[in-house]
Structure formats: C-alpha cells, structure tokens
Amino acid sequence: MAAAAYLPQFASSTSAGEYWQQHVKGHPMLAYLMGNAPLAAHVRRFATLSMRNILYLQAEIQFLEKKLLLAENKDSRSGRGKELSYSLNWQHLKDSANSENKEQYELIRDLRRLMEEYGKLITPLLPAHPRIEVLMTSSTRASAPSTS
After folding, report:
1. Which of 12, 23, 24, 47 has the most crowded Cβ, counting Cβ within 10 A?
2. Is 135 within a domain?
3. What string of H, E and C letters represents the secondary structure of 17-30?
4. For 8-26, how does the pLDDT look when each residue is reduced to its tens digit (9 = 90+)?
C-alpha cells in the first residue's frame, strides 16, 4: 500500500477550530501552541553556549589574522615576482589561488567567511551590551590611520 494512504486527508478549507487537531502530540503540538501564544512560549537562548561560540570564533579569527600577517610579510620579502605585489595588487593575489603560493588568498577567503559569521553573531548583542560596541569602536579607532 502506498505511503500516502497512511497520511490523513486534510481538506484545504480546514477551520481554525480544527487546525490544532492536525498536530500530533509532542513537538508538533507544542510548536503549534507556542506559535499561537508567542508571549507564553518558553525557549532557551543558550546564552552561555552562544558566548562560548563567539569566543572560539574570535580566537580562530585572531589565529588566522596572525597567520595572514606572517604570510604577507614572507611574501613581501620573497623577492619573487607577483608575490612581492600581493599587498598592492588584488588581481595578483586573487590569481595566486591557482598557484603554488596560495596561502594568503586562502587565509583571506577563510577570514571573510568567519568574519561574516562573527558579525551575524555579535550584531544582535550590540544594543543589549553597549560595552561591546565601545570596545569594537575603540579598537577600530586605535588601528585606523588619522584622517586629519
């Protein structure tokens, strides 16, 4: 017998009064109830795990940043053609993705992905924790060249 024969046949015009009955006990019914009363919903934020994840991600970014700085210095002192210009010519750096010396390009690519993830994780925290915003802006200010 086909699997579809086991599925209940629901009319497309099911009334709201009957809709709740279509949800089986357990997570489906709980989700239905929470969806209809969002203020009564109880969900964990996993705040400690979320912060741990952010801290590990931050440590990984810092580690790759150090590797990138070392690779940039090594390439700028290499004395070899295009490697000398990676820090000045994006196209040469991008072209290195298909060469033997692709470390810088791969690090930048990995850092982009991690920075995007990091940004998504910390952005919701900024309004709730102004100190984080202060730290971010002060570290940016400290490393940015003066415009005056």
Report:
1. 23
2. no
3. HHHHHHCCCCHHHH
4. 555 455 566 678 788 899 9
Nearest to 86 by CA among 67, 109, 104, 99: 104
18, part of any domain: no
Q: How far apart are CA 92 and CA 95, in angstroms?
A: 5
For the chain, what is the domain count?
1
Say what the pTM is. 0.64
Residues 26, 19, 9, CA angle at the centre, nearest 5°? Answer: 95
With CA atoms as reference, report the closest residue to 120 among 54, 45, 46, 48.
Answer: 54
- Let me know if residue 80 belongs to a domain: yes
Contact 103, 35 (CB under 8 A): no
Within a domain: 29:
no
